[in-house]
Each structure stands twice: as C-alpha cells, then as structure tokens.
Design goal:
Oligomer: single chain
Number of helices: 10
Radius of gyration: 19 Å
Helix content: over 70%
Distance between the termini: 41 Å
Strand content: under 5%
CATH topology: Tetracycline Repressor, domain 2
Number of domains: 1
CATH class: Mainly Alpha
CATH superfamily: Tetracycline Repressor, domain 2
Shape: elongated
Order of helices and strands: HHHHHHHHHH
Length: about 200
C-alpha cells in the first residue's frame, strides 16, 4: 500500500500500474496480482489505506495539543496541515481519477465519507465539551474543510503561501465570530486577531 501511495504521489494516477507497484515493492508480478488481481482492486485498497492514514494522523496530532491552546485556531491549523500533506495530495490523484472511473468513484465516495466522519469526530473531541453540543460545530467543521481544501488546491497551483497565510488568519477570525466568541466587527480587515 505504501508503494502504491508513493507512486500516486510521485508519478500520478496514470503511471501507477501493477508493474510500477511490483517493481517498487520488489515483488514478483504474480505476488501482487495474487492479492490484487486488477489495478482497480489495488487502487481501491490504496484508497482505504490512505483514508486510514489520514484519520490516524489527525487523531495523533489532535492529542498533542496543549490544554491551553486556542481550539478554534488549532482546528484550522490541523486541517491546513492535513490539506497540504503528501497524503492529501495522494488522495487528490484518486479524486481526479474517480471523475471518469465509476468503480473507483463508488469506493472513493464511501471512503471519503468515512474520512469526513473520522475528521469530524477528531475535531469535535479536539474542540472540547463546550463545542461538542454546539449545533454550529458540524457545519463549521465541514465549512473549514471545504474552504481549506479549495485554498490548498489554489496554493498547489499558484505556490503563493504568503497570501494563504492571510486567508487562514481571516478564516480563524471568521470562525471565532461564527461560534460567537468574537463580535462581528472583528471580521474587518486590519484588526488584530483577539484571543478567542
């Protein structure tokens, strides 16, 4: 699975073939095909592996947060790290391929839902009890993932990280306002981010 993920990241979906994987893994073609008779089956297994790796990394990083750390800002930072990680860009290769591969899309949709459920659980736990019962939490977590996914894709193409940092700061401020931790005038440009 690691060899498949590495190939997806380094070479892309089209070049990630059974031959490429067996060569990377140092295995006989028959050995790989015994476990994964088709490329589609190998990529489906890789999808599950990638989702598991993202959920595991998320949970591990959330556990490392200091008790005094601002939870809203930590949520954005954790999501941003994930959405700029090699594991995310590997998953992105599969998303693009799933657009025209119905079998891959079916599995990917199921796995992405599992990923989102896992991420929501980690975020809710990370945010703590005061946010766990807040009816806004699920929507704002989902919006954070969506906003930062788009931001990551833009940064990947444009490579302008400095502009992204400013957007991240504004999104942290917006979340604090949406959660009712800051007054709405805190969204005005140029105001320093107050402690949430």
């Amino acid at each position: 699975m690691e060899c498949t993920a590495d190939s997806l990241l380094e070479r892309g979906y089209a070049a990630t073939t059974i031959s490429e994987i067996q060569e990377r893994a140092g295995l006989a073609r028959g050995t790989v095909q015994h476990h994964f008779p088709t490329r589609a089956e190998l990529l489906v297994a890789a999808t599950t592996h990638i989702v598991d790796a993202r959920i595991e990394r998320f949970a591990r990083e959330a556990e490392l947060l200091a008790p005094t750390e601002d939870r809203i800002q930590a949520l954005v930072d954790l999501a941003w790290r994930d959405l700029n990680s090699p594991v995310f860009f590997t998953a992105l290769e599969l998303w693009v391929a799933a657009r025209t591969d119905a079998d891959l899309r079916e599995v990917l949709l199921r796995e992405e839902q599992r990923l989102l459920d896992g991420i929501r659980a980690v975020y809710t736990g990370m945010l703590g009890p005061e946010f766990a019962d807040d009816p806004r939490t699920a929507t704002l977590v989902e919006m954070t993932v969506d906003v930062l996914t788009g931001l990551s894709l833009t940064a990947m193409l444009q490579g302008t990280l400095g502009e992204r940092e400013a957007i991240l700061r504004r999104w942290k401020r917006a979340l604090a306002v949406l959660f009712g931790r800051l007054p709405s005038d805190e969204l005005l440009e140029g105001r320093p981010i107050a402690a949430v």
